[in-house]
Design a protein that fits this description.
45% strand; alpha+beta; single chain; globular; 4-stranded antiparallel sheet; 7-stranded antiparallel sheet
């Protein structure tokens, strides 16, 4: 009951219009083959390209209104959400409006968040694939629990920015955040030879 309510708040947290972006964050699945071994992976479509991630048995992936929600089943309040960003990509330029990023990140917290406070800000937390990123971490109280949440604005390319939100109870956040970021770091393009088992 608590988890269902918590996920409902998480899906509803971002209700404003997203900036134009080609990538579709609705989870789909692709089967790849390598050295005769076939594997099924969740993936996201970007035009004709497919980008897959790898999950373990303790992570459940759910669709949510054009978003992807990763439910970490061993942790009662732990989820990660990928959604479109309402901001235009700017992290690779000198035009970054930090106040706007802070305000937008706070708007993404659940409606029931009490006394949210920014506890850290970092840049380039996912320094792979030429991605640019800005992370803000918040502490707040939600439904009587002390929560911590990171909001990462992640630019996949100069025209596409998504948001990665990772939420957990304060005591579990470091472990959950590490697991979430590990999933994103394993983001990879599924080329036709992988999908069809070629060498």
């Amino acid at each position: 009951m608590y988890r269902t309510s918590f996920l409902r708040f998480f899906v509803a947290a971002c209700t404003f219009e997203a900036a134009a972006s080609a990538i579709d964050l609705t989870p789909r699945y692709v089967t790849t083959a390598s050295d005769g071994v076939r594997s099924r992976h969740p993936c996201f479509l970007d035009g004709n390209k497919k980008y897959a991630v790898t999950l373990d048995s303790e992570t459940e992936l759910l669709p949510g209104e054009g978003a992807a929600i990763f439910n970490f089943t061993k942790f009662r309040r732990a989820v990660m959400k990928l959604t479109q960003s309402p901001l235009k990509p700017s992290l690779g330029s000198d035009l970054v409006d930090l106040a706007l990023y802070r305000k937008t990140a706070e708007r993404l917290l659940p409606d029931g968040a009490i006394h949210p406070v920014i506890v850290s800000e970092d840049s380039e937390v996912l320094p792979i694939n030429r991605w640019r990123s800005k992370q803000l971490v918040f502490d707040y109280e939600f439904a009587g629990a002390q929560m911590r949440e990171s909001v990462i604005f992640l630019e996949l390319n100069p025209t596409s920015q998504i948001i990665v939100q990772i939420r957990a109870g304060e005591a579990d956040f470091t472990t959950v955040s590490s697991r979430g970021l590990s999933i994103i770091r394993r983001w990879h393009e599924v080329t036709p030879d992988l999908e069809h088992g070629g060498n």
